[in-house]
Amino acid sequence: MSTDDPVARHRARLAAGVRVAKRVGYGALLLAIVAFVAGAASGFPRALVAVCIAGLVASCVILPVPIVMGYGIRAAERAERDQTRERAERDQQRERAERDQQRERAERDQQRERAERDDAR
Question: Is 0.85 surpassed by the pTM of this model?
Answer without folding.
Answer: no
